UniProtKB/TrEMBL annotation:
Keyword Ribonucleoprotein set for record: no
Taxonomic lineage of the native organism: Bacteria, Pseudomonadati, Pseudomonadota, Alphaproteobacteria, Hyphomicrobiales
Organism expressing this protein natively: Methylobacterium goesingense
Name of the protein this chain belongs to: Integral membrane protein (TIGR00698 family)
Transmembrane segments: 25-46, 52-69, 90-108, 114-132, 144-166, 172-194, 206-229, 241-260, 272-294, 306-324, 336-358
Protein's UniProt keywords contain Metal-binding: no
Domain of life, source organism: Bacteria
Main location: membrane
Membrane topology classification: Multi-pass membrane protein
Keyword terms: Cell membrane, Membrane, Transmembrane, Transmembrane helix
Family classification: Belongs to the UPF0324 family.
Places the protein is found: Cell membrane
Pfam families named among the record's database cross-references: Cons_hypoth698
Length: 361
């Protein structure tokens, strides 16, 4: 047997050992993230039992628990690889699986005028929110996270856009934390628009679908008003969520042109192939969404896949929380709060304008 053959055989024999070693290095950190996830889900379950609605979702609870644990305990070298893996690769897999919940049928059912209005609202909200964030001195990637979270679906949009634009974990946590607080306030305060502005159930449902961040929060905000408001709000919200795919793809093309951390421009990138610009998980997202739309992913399969995606997102948020120094949040807190609040006000004004422009009664 030749020396080359012996070397090849030895390399083949070492592959299982290398793979098991890789898994072993990741396991401790992943287990910590899973433990935080279990607690976060349990807290949400208790919240739902007590109030009937998840005002603060497990995703946000996981971040807060991760930050609290990080404040009390600094993960050693043994845990860092697994935590980093959970924050990046697990999140990318979650974004891919979310495609199974997207169906183009919802777009067709919503009607052309409302569809165009929702698209215009999302685009205007992203542009206006980004401008507000930049005027307040937030860095470009942070501004994009806040803008997308505000315009589309809060935490999920932030989590989906973050890996595409290469956002820092501290920016992701800050954007989600402050968006989550205002999301709860929206659920509690939005019904006041019914008597203050004189909205009908149909108008209020449209407003809730255009402004409230998460689908469960839309239900919480509309159920007290009436069944029509709930039905309209849920439909509008689902169509708004469908904007996440195109927006993420758009930012995957913009990302190479964003300035580097610290303000220095990266400059125009060289020639990049399509697969270099659009990350694998976005292609996976679009593939699953296409299969779902043409009926190759049935409802029976879509629902469990979506639940797995939600679970993986909570795991990744726990990892992000574990990687954040709470003092960083304190330094950016004021500006982020102003940015999210200003963006939300703009979204409300644009949404009300759309309702009146379309003549919704």
């Amino acid at each position: 047997m030749s020396v080359k053959s012996i070397s090849t055989t030895a390399a083949e024999a070492d592959k299982p050992r290398v793979a098991s070693g890789r898994i072993g290095s990741l396991l401790p950190g992943i287990l910590v993230c899973l433990a935080v996830t279990v607690v976060a889900i349990a807290v949400q379950a208790l919240e739902e039992r007590a109030t009937g609605h998840p005002y603060v979702e497990a995703l946000v609870i996981a971040i807060l628990l991760g930050i609290a644990l990080r404040t009390l305990w600094s993960p050693g070298e043994r845990f860092r690889a697994g935590i980093a893996f959970s924050a990046k690769q697990v999140l990318e897999l979650a974004v891919t699986l979310l495609g199974a919940s997207i169906s183009l049928g919802a777009i067709v059912a919503s009607g052309t005028s409302l569809l165009v209005g929702i698209v215009a609202t999302v685009v205007l909200a992203i542009v206006a929110s980004y401008a507000i964030c930049r005027l307040l001195g937030l860095p470009p990637r942070m501004a994009i996270l806040v803008a997308c979270g505000n315009a589309i679906c809060g935490n999920s949009a932030i989590a989906a856009v973050a890996p595409v634009i290469g956002a820092d974990s501290k920016d992701v946590v800050a954007a989600i934390a402050f968006t989550a607080v205002l999301g709860v306030l929206m659920v509690l305060g939005l019904p006041l628009f019914v008597p203050l502005v004189g909205l009908s159930e149909h108008q209020y449902g449209t407003l809730a679908g255009l402004t409230v961040y998460a689908v469960p929060q839309v239900l919480a905000a509309t159920v007290p008003v009436g069944i029509l408001a709930t039905q309209v709000g849920t439909l509008v919200k689902l169509v708004r969520v469908l904007m996440l795919g195109p927006v993420v793809v758009a930012f995957s093309f913009i990302a190479p042109y964003l300035p580097a951390e610290g303000g220095s421009a990266k400059g125009r990138p060289g020639r990049l192939g399509f697969f270099k610009i659009v990350p694998w998980f976005i292609l996976g997202f679009l593939a699953l969404a296409t299969l779902r739309s043409i009926g190759l992913v049935p409802d029976a399969a879509s629902q469990p896949v979506t639940r797995v995606a939600g679970l993986l997102t909570v795991v990744s948020m726990a990892a992000l929380g574990l990687g954040v120094d709470v003092r960083v949040l304190a330094r950016v807190g004021g500006r982020v709060t102003l940015a999210v609040t200003g963006s939300l006000v703009v979204l409300l004004l644009v949404s009300l304008s759309l309702i009146w422009a379309l003549g919704i009664t």
